[in-house]
Predict the 3D structure of the following.
Amino acid sequence: MYGKLTAFRESSRRVWRVLAAAIFSDNASGTSRSEGRAELTSRWRSPESPCFLSGTGRYQYNRFQAWQDRLGTYAGLGNTLEVAEGFEFTTEAGIRASDEYGRGDAWTPEAVFAANGFAWSLSPRQSLSVNSRFSPDLRDAERYRIEAEADGSLTIDTKTKTYSLSTSVSRTSL
């Protein structure tokens, strides 16, 4: 069973995103997946510039990882380019730090390089996007994280663009 809910609130200067997701599955031998995450992201932007500042706080739970609970924070700088009518491409770079409880490690710093979306506006209410992030561990060059996601979004309030719901398919590898 997989469930994800993402809500957006957007203005000319700031975008807020709240995300909650859970994955749970059983098979004949017992529970095979039990994961969850909660995330709050804010982007600060200038209406005159395609650049923005971004900050995120994240909590993750995974019953079958050595860490089981992970807290993380992120800060970065990004740029959005309008490639063509209805098509945007966003890049972002920043620093992320995470603390994995149960591993005994202190905070792990990571660099983050993202092609954070090729977004296609299908209509004023619907959009599709593809996102990817590459995050090398700054203390151990052999460890890195790759995150990829395809996302579909439906805007509820088209006048103010204040609330959106989305669903996605994602994959993270370490």
